[in-house]
Design a protein that fits this description.
5-stranded antiparallel sheet, 28% strand, globular
């Protein structure tokens, strides 16, 4: 399983993903799920992936190839004129890759090669945009009503994002909110694991404002995790007790 979050703020975009993949409790590996391409001063496009690892790696590899081959420049994330067109291209590529793998492996493999993507970025002269791309190749775009997307193991971290999100929040607060969401998911589900990849994209800054990998031994992460647990316990203690009937 996976957990990835893409968030839109007035200040820009924040993306975070875990790196765990597994085929059972005795076969756990670490693979990168957050990728980005950039033309400094002109555009930046980021992609996060959840689902079948072979499918998502194939999609990323094909995007890499298209960015280097002149014949595929019109389908390249580095050449397409709008983020909408890039999302359309990536959606078609995902759909076709899944269909190819299902066909190669026969009817019994149907549905085994599915994947879901979050795509984000900005092209100069246009607004930052955030998309959720489904296995069928169609997609939806983030808005004021839906300002962030999650893929993978979403249920544990979603309530935290809903309660804490504010479109006007700073990058520092957004990363802190995401970290709490991820920490809650890590504590609840072994299929999501460290390290975590983080990418921050400022509005009209066409190169990453900040990019890092957060490990389980990171001092800041350890403080956040411990402080969040202590804060939850303190908040629970501060709530009024249930009025059990007496007598």
């Amino acid at each position: 399983m996976t957990y990835c979050v893409g968030m839109m703020l007035d200040a820009g975009l924040v993306l975070m993903s875990d790196t765990r993949t597994n085929s059972g409790v005795d076969n756990i590996s670490t693979f990168r799920k957050l990728f980005h391409w950039e033309v400094p001063g002109e555009r930046i496009v980021a992609l996060m992936a959840s689902g079948n690892l072979a499918t998502t790696q194939a999609v990323v590899s094909k995007l890499e190839e298209r960015s280097k081959l002149p014949a595929d420049r019109h389908n390249s994330v580095l050449e397409a004129p709008t983020m909408f067109q890039i999302a359309t291209t990536v959606g078609h590529l995902l759909r076709d890759t899944i269909a190819e793998r299902d066909e190669d492996n026969g009817p019994q493999a149907a549905g085994q090669f599915g994947a879901t993507l979050i795509m984000a970025g900005q092209i100069k002269g246009m607004e930052p945009r955030l998309f959720l791309i489904y296995p069928e190749g169609n997609f939806i775009e983030a808005s004021f009503d839906t300002p962030f997307f999650q893929i993978g193991e979403t249920k544990y971290g979603r309530p935290i994002l809903i309660r804490g999100y504010d479109r006007k929040m700073s990058f520092e607060d957004a990363v802190k909110l995401m970290m709490v969401s991820f920490d809650s998911t890590l504590k609840a589900n072994l299929s999501v694991g460290m390290p975590l990849d983080l990418l921050v994209i400022g509005t009209e800054q066409y190169t990453p404002l900040h990019e890092t990998r957060i490990t389980a031994n990171d001092p800041w992460y350890r403080v956040i995790s411990a402080s969040w647990s202590d804060s939850l316990k303190a908040a629970l203690d501060g709530l009024p007790n249930y009025p059990f009937p007496r007598g």
